Amino acid sequence: MKKLGLLLLPILAITLMLGGNAFAQPAPGDGSYYFVTYYSNANTSGAPDGTLRIINDGDQATASPEGVENGTLWAAIYVFDDSQEMQTCCACVITSDGLLSESVNKELVNLNINITGRGEVQRGTIKVISSSNGNEFSPAPLTGLRGWMTHIQATTNGIPTTPGGPDGSKGPWFVTETALADSNLSGTELANLGETCSFGRTLGSGYGFCLCTPEDYDF
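Above: the chain's sequence. Below: its structure in token form.
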């Protein structure tokens, strides 16, 4: 009996170290559905293009019959310039385990699609909502998307060497990549994003649509 008691002591100690549960279940995954990031040096001569990549982690899949897709989500994307003006917005479909790749220069900020038409936008912010519907005007937040963004970093600031002179060179360039940052989505922010997107499209007379790359295409 004494030997059994001595054997139970180390087990009890380990249990206490684990917070009282030696058989704790793994923690649930990240439940985020709202993400933010930035883009820089877009539409800049000599600079490479940035890329936004988003995957559907399959969390919403409810069955696995062969050839039948379920768990589809949409990335509601909202692109702003550095003056806080929305330039484009869209909702891109991403099937379970699928990959969406978006070119910054060609599909997110481009003079031919920007709402404001204010020249070639070079820097700003991107906001993404993981949504259960394909309506960028009224997205329905639902977890399941995860994303990354490549950022184009200049080694010089391109400040003119003489007053009023042309911009100096900003190269060579470096490309970094980071995960989209989790953020907090309030009801006010959700409504503002949808309404700004809708108003911008109306006032932009058809401009303001960011383009969605087919899932089987990457850069």
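Confidence is low (pLDDT under 50) at residues 1-23, 160-166.
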